[in-house]
Amino acid sequence: MKVRLMEQSDLNDTAEVHKLAFVRQKQSYEWLVCNFNAFPRVLCFVAEDSNGIIGYIIWTQKSGFRPEVVMEIEQLAVSPNHQRKGIGRSLIMNSLPLVKAKLAENDSVLKHVFVTTRADNFAQELYKSALGAEVEATITNLYSADEILMIARNVS
């Protein structure tokens, strides 16, 4: 499996992963195009194997272009038939150095990473183990259920 910066030619296959992973959301292709077109504020990476795109991660730079950057993991998705195989962790761990390299091109460093996820989402354990993220707050009834805000501090 390889993690790399998303290319425009990946959008259709990545939209299919989005559609399968986020069944309550719609317009998968349009959602991903908007994020892809927001480069360099938004950095999109894909995980691919010999059969094609199996997951993706979207990192979003928050609150302007700064010397010390707070990045949000806006979205992380793995195709359902590839879940629980370490692909989400690989997406985080293999894209993180690429994010840091992109920030360095603008003389910036990564300060913190934050992520929101459903309170009942098993992925919060992934964010804790991979990044050291801790739950900072619970936001009740935000999207489809309660959301938790997690922050990994001083990631640089």
Question: Could you please describe the fold and organization of this structure?
Answer:
The protein is α+β, with helices and mostly antiparallel strands. It has a single domain, classed as Aminopeptidase (3-Layer(aba) Sandwich), CATH 3.40.630. The protein is 30% helix and 35% strand. The model has no long low-confidence stretch (mean pLDDT 95).
Largest sheet: 7 strands, mixed
Q: In the CATH hierarchy, what is the class?
A: Alpha Beta
How many structural domains are formed by the residues? 1
* Structural class by helix and strand composition: alpha+beta
Per CATH, the superfamily is: Gcn5-related N-acetyltransferase (GNAT)
Distance between the termini: 25 Å
**What fraction of the residues are assigned to beta strands by DSSP?**
35-45%
Report strand order across the widest sheet: 1-2-3-4-5-7-6
Unreliable spans:
none
Radius of gyration: 15 Å
Mean pLDDT: 95
User: Count the helices. How many?
Assistant: 4
CATH architecture: 3-Layer(aba) Sandwich
Give the strand tally: 7
Q: Which descriptor suits the 3D outline?
A: globular
- Could you say what the CATH topology is called? Aminopeptidase
Helix/strand order: EHHEEEHEHEE
